[in-house]
Amino acid sequence: MTQHPALSIQDAVAANPDADKTLNVAGRGRPEREPRDAARRILSRQHFGAQLRSLREGVDLSLSRAAALAGLNSSRKLSQYETTCYPPGEVVERLAPHYGVEPRELAEMVLRHSDPTLFHAITGKPGYEPPLSDIENFMAFKKPNN
Fold first, then answer.
1. Closest Cα partner for 139 from 66, 29, 24, 36?
2. pLDDT tens, residue by residue, 76-93
């Protein structure tokens, strides 16, 4: 096998100016999603968060008290689980008893929203899908003004 001299990045780019197009090089950052799929994912997270918040409020726990009971360093992280992301398994296990539900029930709620297809494959029950009208409204609201 013959060795080729190493090219600097600048030389390699200069020698192959269209490499990003011909080699299908991904850009930096998060991959772009189809707008309808992005809206579905956001609405699913929001629906999950509202349910999680409802469980917490149903047992009359403040955000800071619930976070402390779950062993979280701050209520901010629990707030994120109620708004923008899903809690990991260990948090689900620690929160469930204080929210008056079984860990399995709370874990199913997470999976039902985060991966409806997997949830259906495991349980035979439908996963959460936002109503089409909500997706359409969300997409119309998010359209940039031209």
1. 36
2. 999 999 999 999 999 999
- Identify whether the C-beta of residue 80 lies closer than 8 Å to the C-beta of residue 52: no
In three-state form (DSSP H/G/I as H, E/B as E, the rest C), the secondary structure along the chain is CCCCCCCCHHHHHHHCCCHHHHCCCCCCCCCCCCHHHHHHHHHHHHHHHHHHHHHHHHCCCCHHHHHHHCCCCCHHHHHHHCCCCCCCHHHHHHHHHHHCCCHHHHHHHHHHHHCHHHHHHHHCCCCCCCCHHHHHHHHHHHCCCC
- For the question of whether the overall pTM of this predicted structure is more than 0.70, the answer is yes
